[in-house]
Amino acid sequence: MNKHKNKKIKIQGLDSLYISLTSPNEKRRNLLHSIKNSLIMQDELDVISQIRKDKRAILNEIKKLLSEINVNYQNLKKNLPDVKNVISFTEKELSELENEVKMLKHTIKDDTKIIDRVEDAEDSIRDGNLRHPNRKKKQIKEVEENRYVPNEKLGKPTTVKVSEKPKTLSKLDRIKNNLKVIEAKLEKL
Amino acid sequence: MDKRRDIFIKLDKIKKIVENLTNIEKKENELKELFYNYDSLNSQEGKIFENWSFYLEDINEKIDHVTL
Q: With B15 labelled, which of A25, A37, A65, A104 sits at a CA distance of 20 to 30 A?
């Protein structure tokens, strides 16, 4: 009887301690697979840490290069001329020069007219042709109105012949020279 | 009439400017390469993380089968 009791106790004890596994091989395989996967992940973790190191190094290089490029750009800016307001200034200068040229052209026209008239008057005086005294007076008046010709000299025809011509011509030359200078400036611009 | 004007700007230090520009070009090419490398590393990292997600799913499945 005692032996029987002991056996029962032992079986009950076994029942409480051990639980039977259904398809243990499959479970073992599954466990091994999951362990294998985790090991692969661990291996790849090293790869990731290496990649991150490389990325950090590349970022540092990029930063360095960017700062160098910045310095180069600053140098370039220093070497380039300052052209912030060049266009507006040149436009202003050009318009001023154009106005000057227009004025000079206008005065040249007036001067050539006056010169022609004076030459006509001189010719008529030379020829002794005083048929149109009124016309001559008109001419002299017109010349007197001009600021470049002195009034006294135009009043006496004999003096006009000698002194008038070179003065008006020199003025014309001067204007022409001015025109040339302005045109040269315009070309430069 | 529409007036068109060409404005020319004189460059005094043309040699230095050219030198600077060539330097900048070289460095910009290097930068391009570095960015390209960085991008490839990034994609590599992304692929590894994708693989990780598959591994983790697999592990989860297998551990579910292991439960008693």
A: A65
- Answer yes or no: do B65 and A26 touch at CB < 8 A: yes
User: Length of chain A, please?
Assistant: 189
For residue A183, which amino acid is it? E
pTM attached to this predicted model: 0.51
CA distance A22 to A28: 11
- 3-class SS string, A27-82: HHHHHHHHHHHHHHHHHHHHHHHHHHHHHHHHHHHHHHHHHHHHHHHHHHHHHCCC
What is the ipTM, given to two decimal places?
A: 0.81
B28 min Cα distance to partner chain A (Å): 8
Smallest CA–CA distance, residue B30 to chain A, in Å, is 8
Closest CA to B6 of A94, A80, A35: A94
Q: Is A152 helix (H, G, I), strand (E, B) or coil?
A: helix
**DSSP code string of chain B:** -----------S-HHHHHHHHHHHHHHHHHHHHHHHHHHHHHHHHHHHHHHHHHHHHHHHHHHHHH--
Q: Give the mean pLDDT of A37-52.
A: 93
Q: What is the pLDDT of residues A67-99, one digit of tens each?
A: 999 999 999 988 888 777 777 777 778 888 888
